[in-house]
Structures are given as structure tokens and as C-alpha cells.
Amino acid sequence: MRASCEGCLVLHRDATVAFCTEELDGRLCLGYDRRHLAGTMPCRVEPKVVRCEHCQRSLQLMLVFSIPYQPPRPLGNPALVN
Ligand SMILES: [Zn+2]
Ligand SMILES: [Zn+2]
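Above: inputs. Below: predicted complex with zinc ion.
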């Protein structure tokens, strides 16, 4: 059994996991808490893509409560992206 997932974790703005790219390809993610060989990337990657509901909501919460924006932190021990 592989110890880490070969996909890339996609994180919402509030640093919760949106999905794993392995799931996009029809494969199973080994677990969001596993190391992801492709690293992590923010949910809102392409500017043309409509921001997802989850990110939209957390963005509104930040504005309402003036919570300073914190960039998504990689979970666990992510692979270096090179
Ligand atoms: Zn999102
Ligand atoms: Zn995965």
C-alpha cells in the first residue's frame, strides 16, 4: 500500500480541503491527511473560474469579522513543489 497520495490537494481559502486531484481523475484519494506527492494548491486557481461557494462564504466571513486572510497552510508533510 502506498504511503502517500499521488494527487494534489486543493484547499479552500480557509485552508480546509476542497478535494484531491486524484478524485478528478476518477481515482481514490488515499486520505486528505496523507502526504500528497503533487503538493497543494489553492481552490481558486484559474481567475476565470467562478469562486466556489465555500470560498465565497469564508471570504464574506472574513470581511464581516475582519479576520485577516491567512494563506492556506500545507497539511502534514507536503512534498516540495519544484
Ligand atoms: Zn473553495
Ligand atoms: Zn489525495
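Residues 20 and 26 are 10 Å apart (CA to CA).
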